[in-house]
């Protein structure tokens, strides 16, 4: 077990290094720099700025300096927001994105599994068709359209919820719903297909033959086993969702981390680009790792051993 | 059995819908009330959207319009642009100018910082020298290059002590300029020239990074709260020298980076203002806002133009450039694409500075003259037909409106002149880099004035390289007129010199002006005295609800 963990952590570290290196060089290859603007800076001021931020150093010096700083969890100052460090930006934005993400995952998981199970239990009946129509719509409608639609219906027409911003619980409902739609639909489809497969297994027939009630069979025997693909989807999904969605955060004016992924690249805010990428990668790698552990818990047949990796 | 289940489902659905409807009714009333609040007589809170987090709340570091929108209301410079768009004394009580126009002596008004400290001449000296000190990395330090030795000190070629700003005593500030600068009192209203409480700043170098006890200012409002990337809350400054004029108690400046959401919030009563200059209105909404007569439009000092790379074939030929510029159908571009009441531009300096530029130097969409210039140009190049010209690439940064304008111009050039063109778009930073390095043929650019003087729109073409010229164009006569205008003390003569320079510029056509910018916005009807300057920026000092 310890050997397995050790190996996993080593691979995680390696992936992280590759991600950091690739991001670092891709970022520097992009034309422009953090001080690019339509009003060009006098060359002396720009040179002075470059010297201050160490951008005048050769690339390998900058690269190794950066690695050193990441090792101490110091992502440096932002170029675009003077006086704020990338650590500040992450620690202010992440809790917001996390809260929104958890709410969305909760909605997606609860409703998605419910719809999927219903669809499988009533296979080829109206319940099945209506949940799957819902799922197809949910997957095909992009989240920004869903967001605008929700805003229009609930905030403008019905006037029950606020249009945007991040304040009270009421403010969180629409963005969480908009964020949840696609994963919800996806989970519903995953659950349905894996439920159908599980339900045709011999042990379900055995359970039925034993005279167990339908409810017990569904919950104890079928759903538990049908959850496997959902759990593996949940890992990367939660990493993606809790670090925030650019589109949803922009439309609802939410001060989360998601908007920084895109705006930092537009601004060539080097330190923020690196900071959020590294942060996101760590979360992603960790969540995949956790999912692998959960596998073992749900399905005892999967053993966590070094020679037989869970994933 | 089956039927019963169906009935249950229906009952559930019914229950849910009643619940939703009930919610709708109840809270809907609340929403209306929020909107109606605006109509109450004593509303003292203003809610606006500034779209994004500002770069910095330090006057010496700020370099963007968002920071400017806040600083203009929290700080008081030596002068402030008043309701008539003229600089008036603010933190300065009296200004004396020496005969040669190079030495300004300001007497500081008796007034206090928000923490009760008196505002002194030293605070101005400290702030300006701080911004010019290269170790503080101010990107806008060049706004202070008008001061004697300002540029040299910023480039490390002179000592900071030698910069031409000196506090003679607590209340007297003596400013020495490099050249007589006729618009210097416009500049002292600009945010890079705002004072900083030197006592606080020396004690706590991080004073400007967050709202709090150490964030002190001397303007109509003080910053009460700053939630990064979320909102800034200003409240009335009790220590402000002119506090009786200030009617609002509180200003919420939200940061919602989506123009559609902003407009929805305005319509629902969650904002009192939507659109320029804090943010923008969605182009799609312009028509309906115009139709219900809620849209406000005001021309501002800014121009949207197409720069020609005057070293690229065939744009090195002035007649080809003129043909291309004359033929553009600006009227249909502003009416059908930009839709914000923009003014077709046939000149470089906006009409708010040169009134007669509303008409401009040539006729819009002048196909006949354009064809004549084309003929002439082709002859000079030894070509018979426009189709023999090298293909011209029109570049723009990725954006729907820029794209539509480029397509319209491409269409006109092809249809009226038979010139072959292709379009190329890039992401903003990539685009800017290309333009600044001269790697383009024709490219769009917007230019906004920093202060209310025509020099803003001409100066960038003074030198061929460096600065923001991008066109590789230069003209010794043009340059001489600009340099001489800096020394001319008579406003009428100076204005004429700048007009002569503009005439040369339009005659040589290194850029094709397209339109002059406007601010377009919607606001609460009972919101009064929000003062918008000719530059398009807004002051909330006098704002109030009726």
UniProtKB/TrEMBL annotation, chain A:
Hey, which family's this protein in? Belongs to the binding-protein-dependent transport system permease family.
For this protein, the record's InterPro entries field holds: BPD_transp_1_N (IPR045621), MetI-like (IPR000515), MetI-like_sf (IPR035906)
Tell me which stretches of the chain form a coiled coil.
Answer: none
According to the record, the segments passing through the membrane are 9-30, 98-121, 133-156, 168-188, 230-252, 272-298
The primary location reported for this protein is membrane
Keyword Membrane in annotation: yes
Name its species. Bacillus badius
Q: Give all residue intervals belonging to the ABC transmembrane type-1 domain.
A: 94-295
Pfam families, from UniProt? BPD_transp_1, BPD_transp_1_N
Localization: Cell membrane
Q: Give the UniProt keywords, A-Z.
A: Cell membrane, Membrane, Transmembrane, Transmembrane helix, Transport
User: Which topology term describes how it sits in the membrane?
Assistant: Multi-pass membrane protein
This one is known as: Oligopeptide transport system permease protein OppB
* The keyword Flavoprotein is annotated on this UniProt entry: no
UniProtKB/TrEMBL annotation, chain B:
| Name the record gives this protein | Oligopeptide ABC transporter, periplasmic oligopeptide-binding protein OppA
Solute-binding protein family domain boundaries: 86-468
Please give the superkingdom of this protein's source. Bacteria
Question: Where does the signal peptide begin and end?
Answer: 1-21
What organism does the record attribute this protein to?
Answer: Bacillus badius
Taken from the record, one Pfam family name reads SBP_bac_5
| Keyword field | Signal
Alphabetical list of SUPFAM superfamilies matching this protein: Periplasmic binding protein-like II
